[in-house]
Amino acid sequence: VRSRIIGCGSYLPANVVTNDDLAKRVDTSDEWIVARTGIRQRHIAAEGETTSDLAYEAAIKAMEHAGVTADDIDLIIVATATPDNTFPATATKVQNRLGVTGFAFDVQAVCSGFVYGLTTADMYIRNGQAKTALVIGAETFSRILDWEDRRTCVLFGDGAGAVVVQAVEGQGTIEDQGILASRLHSDGSKYELLYVDGGPSATQTVGHLRMEGKEVFRHAVTNLAGVIREVLADTGIDASEIDWLVPHQANRRILDSTAKKFGISPDKVVVTVDRHANTSAASIPLALAEAVHDGRIQRGDIVILEAMGGGFTWGASLVRW
Ligand code: ACO
């Protein structure tokens, strides 16, 4: 048994905040933000709108696209670093709203969360414990930003994306639709470069995101290239055969530099960072849903999903769409 992605969907909160809007709150400018990051705007959740609300909306769309109902789903994984509550898992809230039986849990790998979640679902499907899984990346990073800190508050946004992953009989070949390879990495020694300075056990507060941007940038470029090389080597697929790069959307310069390293032309990179900013675990499924629904990604395409985030954590999945 192996697994394939049979549908995807996404959801963005209605409220759009432009760079000019932010310039009214902190000492920044549209020019600075666009030049350094490529970000022009971000969506911010309304008061009372939580991560599970965004996750639920994205899940409904992914299930519709996949043509499955709640009865078909036997596993829900929500990748998030901004759960509604310390516990229960946001995934169980989504499970309840969808009316799904089976099991549900969250994974926490910050911006790499979607790749971790997809890899985890793939494992449950391969060992027969699940047949149809919902993997959702959902975040409300606006709730953990220090809105006085111009170095970080301009970079992030809220949103959710989801995919339905389903078992297919047989081992398949690299020509067959499916998740062909995944690799995950973590390095806890880089904790202080990107973290939240709160939490239930440490401070009994929610805390705010803290980041050494330049250092994160440097590690991201190196680590992402390394993990993409690994999934290519695992499958014997050459970089020239990649049809679409669907990266975690942190920063336009990281995307461009990663694509350049592998000789991937800019029009083969799915970019949403200009409109969504960095939505952490939600960014890959948001970008994927956009490129699938507008017809760019076609059946049979080789698609690479990759991400790097706090921890550090990083990973990649190579998918035959
Ligand atoms: N507006 C105006 N000026 C700013 C802003 C802002 N929003 N933010 C910082 N500056 C200023 C700084 O204060 C500094 O001024 P100084 O020289 O007077 O001290 C100057 O701009 C340069 O600051 P740097 O931090 O050196 O700027 P840099 O070119 O590194 O860009 C950035 C910062 C955009 C954060 C970049 O380092 C980056 O993108 N890093 C990657 C981080 C990232 O994407 N993290 C996401 C999570 S992890 C992941 O998803 C990969």
TrEMBL record:
Domain description: The last Arg residue of the ACP-binding site is essential for the weak association between ACP/AcpP and FabH.
Reactions this protein catalyses: malonyl-[ACP] + acetyl-CoA + H(+) = 3-oxobutanoyl-[ACP] + CO2 + CoA
Keywords linked to the UniProt accession: Acyltransferase, Cytoplasm, Fatty acid biosynthesis, Fatty acid metabolism, Lipid biosynthesis, Lipid metabolism, Multifunctional enzyme, Transferase
GO biological process, one term: fatty acid biosynthetic process
Residues annotated as domain Beta-ketoacyl-[acyl-carrier-protein] synthase III N-terminal: 105-188
Span of domain Beta-ketoacyl-[acyl-carrier-protein] synthase III C-terminal: 232-321
EC number: 2.3.1.180
Region (ACP-binding): 249-253
A Gene Ontology cellular-component term: cytoplasm
Coiled-coil zones: none
Native source species: Thalassospira profundimaris
Subunit structure: Homodimer.
CDD domains: KAS_III (cd00830)
Chief location: cytoplasm
Localization of this protein: Cytoplasm
Pathway participation: Lipid metabolism; fatty acid biosynthesis
A molecular function GO annotation: 3-oxoacyl-[acyl-carrier-protein] synthase activity
InterPro entries (UniProt xref): ACP_syn_III_C, ACP_syn_III_N, FabH, Thiolase-like
Active site, UniProt feature: C111, H248, N278
Function according to Swiss-Prot or TrEMBL: Catalyzes the condensation reaction of fatty acid synthesis by the addition to an acyl acceptor of two carbons from malonyl-ACP. Catalyzes the first condensation reaction which initiates fatty acid synthesis and may therefore play a role in governing the total rate of fatty acid production. Possesses both acetoacetyl-ACP synthase and acetyl transacylase activities. Its substrate specificity determines the biosynthesis of branched-chain and/or straight-chain of fatty acids.
Family under the similarity heading: Belongs to the thiolase-like superfamily. FabH family.
Name of the protein in its database record: Beta-ketoacyl-[acyl-carrier-protein] synthase III
